């Protein structure tokens, strides 16, 4: 299974049309099986911005999609609307479902609305009822399907100098995800990419292998932060029977195209690569030989 993971497109003043056009040119070559859009479709939750975002998403490859709202998809300054009907235009133009489930032949995705428009406009929340939603969704997943959570806000801070505050009670959610067998968490919000493992932040949860965390930068806006200041990025994720391979793509201003910057490889279920040969250039979804080993999932990270 191949996932195209984009985030924080921010239709409105920050949106960069040339970068959006480059993404639309690149997306078919990724040949994804699933498209994930992890929130912040708009800058100020205005009807025209949602309409533009919806049209943009329709131009992405015609495959199953999972889209969730971000904090910018609820009104900030229209206070009465934020308190009484915060997702009005998201529901009208994008989806009536805020917490959603997508099952494909290879995975079950659970998308969680981490926005908290009445209490935490920026940092987000995952409420107990949403954890119950996860229990129900992942409770009857057929063997072999990857379990993937998508939420806009981050469950762990990026390991850099900006020191972002994590969602309150994130550890509670991580502990449940570990029990449910979640293998991958996809998110945005930070406006810079970060690819790691829950064991880097929550050493008590899932000591055998942890959960792979993949945060996406801002794919099409001028609002990049940290190492991706004034940069744009997306993630290409290969999930095979034995590995999770994340290729981080970044926009090159000189060429006007997205290009792969780094590749990060993890074994599924705590297994480790042994004597693996390079992936075939003729079959980009070829797997490597892996054997069981109860060690942390992170295997290697390389520049490309």
TrEMBL record:
This is 3,5-cyclic-nucleotide phosphodiesterase cpdA homolog. It comes from the Bacteria. CDD domains: MPP_1 (cd07400). Gene3D superfamilies: 3.60.21.10. Residues 277-304 have a biased composition (Polar residues). GO terms for molecular function: 3',5'-cyclic-nucleotide phosphodiesterase activity; DNA binding; DNA exonuclease activity; metal ion binding. It comes from Rhodopirellula baltica (strain DSM 10527 / NCIMB 13988 / SH1). Residues 1-192 form the Calcineurin-like phosphoesterase domain. Belongs to the cyclic nucleotide phosphodiesterase class-III family. GO terms for biological process: DNA repair. It is an enzyme of class 3 (hydrolase). Keywords: Hydrolase, Iron, Metal-binding.
């Amino acid at each position: 299974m191949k996932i195209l993971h984009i985030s924080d497109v921010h239709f409105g003043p920050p949106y960069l049309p040339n970068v959006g056009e480059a993404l639309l040119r690149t997306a078919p070559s990724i040949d994804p099986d699933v498209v994930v859009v992890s929130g912040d479709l708009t800058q100020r939750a205005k009807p025209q911005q949602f309409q533009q975002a919806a049209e943009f998403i329709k131009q992405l490859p015609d495959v199953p999609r999972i889209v969730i709202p971000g904090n910018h998809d609820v009104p900030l300054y229209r206070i009465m609307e934020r308190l009484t009907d915060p997702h009005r235009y998201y529901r009208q133009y994008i989806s009536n479902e805020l917490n959603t489930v997508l099952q494909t032949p290879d995975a079950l995705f659970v998308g969680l609305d981490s926005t908290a428009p009445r209490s935490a406009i920026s940092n987000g929340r995952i409420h107990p009822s949403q954890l119950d939603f996860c229990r129900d969704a992942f409770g009857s997943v057929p063997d072999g399907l990857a379990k993937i959570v998508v939420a806009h806000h981050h469950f762990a801070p990026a390991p850099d100098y900006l020191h972002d505050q994590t969602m309150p009670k994130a550890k509670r959610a991580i502990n449940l995800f570990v029990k449910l067998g979640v293998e991958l968490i996809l998110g945005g919000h930070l406006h810079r990419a970060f690819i790691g493992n829950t064991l880097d932040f929550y050493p008590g949860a899932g000591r055998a292998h942890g959960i792979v965390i993949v945060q996406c930068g801002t794919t099409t806006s001028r609002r990049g932060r940290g190492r991706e200041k004034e940069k744009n990025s997306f993630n290409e994720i290969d999930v095979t029977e034995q590995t999770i391979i994340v290729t981080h793509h970044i926009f090159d201003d000189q060429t006007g195209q997205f290009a792969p910057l780094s590749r990060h490889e993890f074994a599924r279920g705590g297994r480790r690569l042994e004597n693996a040969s390079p992936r075939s250039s003729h079959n980009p979804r070829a797997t490597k030989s892996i054997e069981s080993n109860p060690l942390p999932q992170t295997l290697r990270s390389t520049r490309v």
